[in-house]
């Protein structure tokens, strides 16, 4: 038996919607399905404007253009994050200042942000790791106090909330990913959420490759022309059709993921197993095979995006992932602290020299277990199918 780390869910309607998109004769961006998806999110999350992009990386790059980052200006973000969070701003000449992770969670330690703010600071990127919300009250208060912009990297955070508000819809701009490893996915895809009216017009221009095509399509101008910076950011209708098939099932998918998270939590924290001879039993037995594993307590569910364990040492992580691998189970580690990367050493040597012990702890010790809807099937059809 082989259990991969991820197996993208395929909605039964996906192929029908792709065919429909093709039959409509419009498979580039901003068509029938793309507009349906955008409207869905605008209504559900009460957002002024949602724009589908071909990745969350693109949405972050659009955010950096919208904020008019100037070379030498500083952007604050966690060190324990994906490279795109940083690259989007570095492409505009920003200097990145890195914040450590929390002791109890890989997300950013909000209490360390204020010490990094100076006259060059332009923005803070709040990364909601594993869909667990950053303290947005605290971060938005810093924005007001120092006149900064806040971007939410809610790549992993779809359907997760902070005090009743959807993540990505709270700060000035929010970015979501529909990459195949995320809860709701269309292969490659993303979305920019524009929560501040000031950015609305310019966002559409940037999204339309730097032209006022949106105004032209609405009949407000007779021809469209070059107005601003822009690039090819739109999501193809083929991907939007796949995305729509998943949005129709979004609540069901969310419930199933919650069930998987609960089963993992049960075996590691409650030492309780509902079904024997299941995948989850294998995962637990692999753990019991070595009684020396020291694991940080598990506390945060977020949106059931991932289930991870944090080992005290890299050696323990490796031992457990090898024990799983012997059973055919693929567990994977995650980010390596950005401040300690080769690129940071070259570009931001002062940041490279800083000590951010928690970010390094998660780089060394965090292990993500397989997480996809068909893990349920592994229970019922034990040994019959290789996934
Ligand atoms: C996945 C991810 C991204 C990038 O998303 P893409 O859609 O693959 O570009 C950015 N930031 C975080 C935190 C992510 O998890």
UniProtKB/TrEMBL annotation:
The keyword Transferase applies. Coiled coil: none annotated. Pfam families: DegT_DnrJ_EryC1. Its EC number is 2.6.1.59. One of its GO terms (molecular function) is dTDP-4-amino-4,6-dideoxygalactose transaminase activity. Keywords: Aminotransferase, Pyridoxal phosphate, Transferase. It is an enzyme of class 2 (transferase). InterPro entries: DegT/StrS_aminotransferase (IPR000653), PyrdxlP-dep_Trfase (IPR015424), PyrdxlP-dep_Trfase_major (IPR015421), WecE-like (IPR012749). The keyword Membrane does not apply. It comes from the Bacteria. Belongs to the DegT/DnrJ/EryC1 family. PANTHER family: DTDP-4-AMINO-4,6-DIDEOXYGALACTOSE TRANSAMINASE, TRANSAMINASE. This is dTDP-4-amino-4,6-dideoxygalactose transaminase. It comes from Algoriphagus sediminis.
């Amino acid at each position: 038996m082989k259990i991969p780390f991820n197996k993208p869910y395929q909605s039964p309607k996906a192929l029908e919607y792709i065919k429909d998109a093709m039959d409509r004769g419009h498979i580039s961006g901003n068509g029938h399905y793309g507009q349906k998806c955008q409207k869905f999110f605008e209504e559900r999350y009460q957002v002024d404007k949602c724009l589908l992009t071909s990745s969350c990386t693109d949405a972050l790059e659009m955010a950096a253009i919208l904020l008019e980052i100037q070379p030498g200006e500083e952007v604050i973000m966690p060190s324990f994050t994906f490279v795109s969070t940083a690259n989007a701003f570095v492409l505009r000449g920003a200097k990145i200042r890195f914040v450590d992770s929390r002791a109890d969670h890989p997300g950013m330690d909000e209490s360390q942000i204020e010490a990094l703010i100076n006259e060059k600071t332009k923005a803070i990127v709040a990364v909601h790791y594993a869909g667990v919300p950053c303290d947005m009250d605290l971060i938005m208060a810093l924005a007001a106090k120092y006149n900064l912009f806040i971007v939410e990297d809610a790549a992993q955070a779809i359907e997760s909330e902070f005090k009743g508000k959807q993540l990505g819809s709270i700060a000035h701009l929010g970015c979501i990913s529909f990459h195949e490893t995320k809860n709701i996915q269309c292969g490659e895809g993303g979305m920019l959420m524009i929560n501040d009216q000031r950015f609305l017009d310019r966002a559409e221009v940037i999204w339309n490759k730097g032209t006022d095509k949106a105004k032209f399509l609405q009949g407000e101008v007779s021809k469209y022309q070059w107005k601003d910076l822009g690039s090819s950011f739109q999501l193809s209708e083929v991907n939007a059709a796949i995305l729509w098939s998943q949005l129709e099932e979004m609540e069901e998918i969310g419930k199933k993921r919650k069930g998987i998270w609960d089963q993992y939590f049960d075996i590691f924290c409650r030492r309780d197993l509902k079904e024997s001879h299941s995948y989850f039993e294998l995962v637990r037995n692999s753990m019991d095979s070595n009684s020396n594993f020291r694991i940080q307590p598990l506390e945060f569910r977020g949106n059931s995006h991932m289930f991870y364990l944090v080992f005290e040492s890299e050696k323990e992580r490796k031992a457990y992932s090898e024990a799983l691998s012997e059973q055919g189970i693929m567990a994977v580690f995650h980010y390596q602290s950005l401040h300690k990367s080769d690129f940071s050493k070259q570009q931001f040597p002062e940041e490279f020299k800083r000590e951010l012990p928690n970010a390094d702890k998660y780089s060394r010790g965090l292990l993500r277990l397989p997480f996809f809807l068909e893990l349920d099937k592994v229970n019922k059809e034990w040994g019959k199918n290789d996934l």
